[in-house]
Amino acid sequence: MNLSNVIDNLVRKPFRKRLFKKKIAPFRNKHKGESCIIMGAGPSLKDLPVEVLKKFTVIGTNSSYKHYVPDYNVIVDAQFSWLDEALKALRNKGGVTFINLIWNQDKRKLREKLTKNDIELFHFETSADHSMANVRLWNRLSDVYNNPFKIEEGVTSVTSVVPEGAIPLALYMGFDKIYLIGVDFTNSYGHHFFKDDKEDLKKIVENEKNIQNISNSSKGLWEMKIYPFELISYSKNKNKIINLSKISEIKTIQKKSIESFINELKGY
């Protein structure tokens, strides 16, 4: 990091935190008592019919908008090729994009893409140097799972797994039931519900190699990505979060089959 970046961080960090708190405040308990679906971009996303998604408020993550344009979209990997398309899709629907620019080299250029309705996420920079050894970060995320209003302090995510940042946001919005689909953690079926294009796949591989160099083992990389979800099992809000993916490797979040989920909907 060069000197100008250091100065920028020192000057802007408190300002950005205050700005984030001000912009996110209107969403506090906005959907109190409602149910939502969080879409990851894993293969199981294709298992949930679009007609079902239309019945819910939907929070997308990164490129999941390609399957269904959500009401809210959380974008962490803003360097990917689909960013302009994702922003446009949400605006056309009247949705809101929550976007993290911390990892990107040309933040000024990316900020120029945003409108007043887009909210720049303030959260910890969580590249490979923030591994499982950094207990303080994990504890902060655990606090947010228990007390989602701490998201106003800027704690939204501690790894590169985007749904892990979307869950505290959903809790902050007051949703009483949060259903996950496409949050799979399996490479057996591919990375995404769509065919990875070469540019994005290259970035995925590069990101995982960078983390791999720090964690020193595939097990370390796996644990780094999946561990934040395991924190949910210790949260007072754990019963609000339900995983609909039958192929998901997350063992600590309660599961429900898509079939039973749809059958329950028919009863209303």
From TrEMBL:
One Pfam match: MptE-like
6-hydroxymethylpterin diphosphokinase MptE-like domain boundaries: 20-188
Domain of life, per lineage: Bacteria
InterPro entries on file: A-2_3-sialylTrfase_sf (IPR036715), MptE-like (IPR002826)
Gene3D superfamilies: Alpha-2,3-sialyltransferase
Protein's UniProt name: 6-hydroxymethylpterin diphosphokinase MptE-like domain-containing protein
Species the sequence originates in: Algibacter mikhailovii
